[in-house]
Design brief:
By secondary structure, this protein is of the alpha+beta class. It is built from six helices and six strands. Strands 3-5-6-4 form a four-stranded mixed beta sheet, covered by helices on one side.
Length: 191
């Protein structure tokens, strides 16, 4: 009877660990899907701001604000892993490495010419960054540099406030250059 209790405890412990692992995997998949949707929302809202800028700058500014809110939500997913810390070692200070995360993006963006014409124009014009492995047969991997997009959107919002439509338009279009296709550099995607 005692030998059964010795077997039951490891089996029970394994069962608990397996359930925890499955929950973590499901949470990661949901988080990834949510980040992907936030990236798409950011780009769609930017596209809408481009369309509205000449007609109604106030509404375009509101769309820029919505895009910035989406980027803030993306940043919140990665914030806990991107903090650089300092350690005091004797009389010198040592900084730990800073890692920036580029969330992967759904390939849906490459084929969505109706909703994201600016991205498609930049892809076809070879303005968007493409790594060396961008042949027709290569598997396409997209990543979003949300800090670059945030800087461009913030500058566009300030240009709208200052009534500089050309500067605002240039920065809104620059947001789409935050998409990297098959980058040659290493990309951190863990959250």
């Amino acid at each position: 009877m005692k030998s059964l209790s010795y077997l039951a405890f490891p089996a029970f412990l394994t069962f608990i660990l397996l359930i925890g692992w499955q929950n973590a995997q499901a949470s990661n998949a949901t988080e990834s899907k949510n980040v992907n949707q936030m990236v798409i929302d950011t780009l769609v809202q930017t596209e809408e701001a481009i369309a509205l800028l000449r007609i109604n700058p106030a509404t375009a500014k509101a769309k820029v604000g919505e895009a910035l809110a989406s980027i803030k939500s993306i940043g919140a997913q990665y914030e806990h892993n991107t903090v650089a810390s300092l350690e005091k070692m004797g009389t010198t200070m040592k900084a730990t490495d800073y890692r920036h995360y580029y969330p992967p993006v759904d390939l849906y963006l490459l084929s969505n010419k109706q909703e994201l014409p600016t991205l498609n124009y930049k892809l076809e014009s070879d303005i968007v960054y493409k790594g060396d492995d961008y042949s027709k047969d290569a598997k396409k991997e997209l990543y979003f540099d949300y800090t670059f997009a945030k800087a461009s959107l913030t500058t566009a919002r300030e240009a709208i406030d200052a009534d500089h439509a050309l500067e605002a338009m240039a920065n809104l279009r620059r947001v789409f250059e935050a998409i990297y296709v098959n980058p040659d550099f290493n990309v951190s995607t863990d959250s």
